[in-house]
Each structure stands twice: as C-alpha cells, then as structure tokens.
Predict the structure.
Amino acid sequence: MGRHRDWRKIAKRERRRKIRKHNAKNREPLEQQEIEQIEEDNRRENEKWLQAELITITRIKKLEAERQRNLQKQLVAEAKMREEWEEEKLRREKESQRLKQIEEENLARQAKFLNSLEEFLNGNLSEPPEELSTYRETKPNMELCPFFVKTSCCRFGDQCSRNHQYPAISNNANFNEYDTDVMLEYEESETSRHYKDFFYDVLPEFQKHGKITQFKVCNNYEKHLRGNTYVEYLDIRSAVRAYRALHSRWYGGRQITLQFCQITSWKNAICGLQSRKRCPKGRSCNFLHVFANPENLFMYYDIPERKPLTSKTSWRWSESPERTSPKRKRSKSKDREKERSHHRHKRKHSKRR
C-alpha cells in the first residue's frame, strides 16, 4: 500500500509537469504577439507625441514671431506717435501764433471800425463803414426766397431750401417784442387798446434816434411773423444809432433782439386783402397782417402814388351813351348796316369764283 501511494504521487506530479510544459509551449506565441502589439502601440503613441510636439513647437515659433512683429509694430507706432505729437505740438504753436496775430489784427480792425462807426454816427462821414456794406447769405448758390425778399421773414428760417440775404446794415430794423398772445385772451377791442399802449410806449424810444418813416407791428398767428415789429428810418445813420442803443435791452421782462432787414416795397410785404378782411388764410397768412396805428400814423407810406387820369382814361370826359343824340344813334346804326351788307357782298362774290 505504501508503494502504490508513492507511485500515484509521482505520477500526478509528472502529469502536472507535462501539463505545465504543454501550456508553456502554447503560451509563448501569445506572449510574443502581445509583446509585438504593445511595441506597435508604443511606437504609434511615440509618433503621435512627436507629431504633437512638432506642432506645438511650430505654433510656439509662430506665436513668438507674431509677438516680435507686434512688438516691432508697436515700436514703429510709438515712434510715429512721438513724431506726430512733435509735429502737432509745432503745429499748435504755429496756430497759436497765427490766431494771436489774427486776434491782434481783428482788434485793430475792430477799433478802426468802431472809430469809423462813431465818425459816421456823429456825421463826420457821409458813407457807412465798408464792413456794413455786405450781405450774409444762407445758401449763396440757390435762388432767392420770394417770401423773405418781400417780408424779410420765412416760415422755414435758415433751413429754407432757398437763399436768404441778411443785410449788414439797412434803414429798416425788425425786432420781435409785441406779445400777440393777448389776442387769444382778449377781444379785438381790448387787443387794440393793448396795442395802442404798446405803440405809444415804444415809438418815443425809437424816435429818439432819428425820424421814423414807417412803423408796423404784425398780428399774424404764424410763429415767424407773430409780434414782429418793423421800424423804418429816414436814413441809415438813424437806424444804426437805434440798433446800437436798443439791441439787447430789456422791455416787459424780455430781451430785445434787433436785426436789420431789407423791405423794398411795403405794398408787396403787407397782405392786400387784410384791410378788406377778405384774406382766405386769415392771420395764418405768410404776408404781413399789421395792426392799424393810432391816429392813422404812418399810413401815407402804405398808399401807392396814383397816376393822374388822362382824358382817355378819365370817366369824366367819356361820352355817355345816354347823352348821345338820336341822329348820332341812327348814323351809327346805318354805318353798321352798310358794313354788314358789304361783308355779305364779298362772301357771295368769293363763292361765285
């Protein structure tokens, strides 16, 4: 029994050894394949890493080159800015000197102008200074605005598509002071009373500076005409004197703003249908609707001079048909019949031909 047991142990051990040997022989090719696969994977990973490293190095080089270029550009820009700043500084110094010279010239010219203006106002000069013989134009190359030419006002102001000419000096002065809003609160009789008070209050102030030939105040509802007061002097010297004395003064809590205007014909400026109360636009008309001055002052300049009637146009010397004698009537009728018969004879003769 003891020997058999030992023999079985030896047999089992040999069998296990053979199995291990057989398994070892079968396992060697698999391990070799795994090793080769691992090496292939390592090689691929190494190539990927090298490629990624090459891309990274290339990108870093590009970034470095771009940084160098930007740095170079920045240096060039700073140098250019420094140069431009130096040029701007030099230009400002020159401009400052030029403006200072212009200011000195303007001050000298202004002093000369004021001296000439004083001499003109005092009567030592017959003509106004040259600086006042000019026009300010809003659109020099455009056609003149017809409403501004007639009334010196336009509903569009300086935004008008046509040209407005503002004279530097004129014997007409215009200022917007009379408050026509009273027409919205009072009746016509009360408005007339208010205007009468305004007329006798303002007119003496303007008469202090010269003889007035026209005084008109608008009662239009339009904003550009509402409350406009037109004062026309006999000469330019009086208008300039009034402008210098009254411009920017205060009246009734408002500051007066005077400007020169050029109205060549009051007949064309004032609405012709206003006096007859037939204007279809009423106070919204763009022509001047003016108040009637107390005591009919300055009314003469509204009426155009009438030409004397000749004998041909005068109705006093025309022959009245009621006063013609019956003999003359008969002679006229006979003459007409003769003319008619003569025309009939001519027509018949032409038809026969």
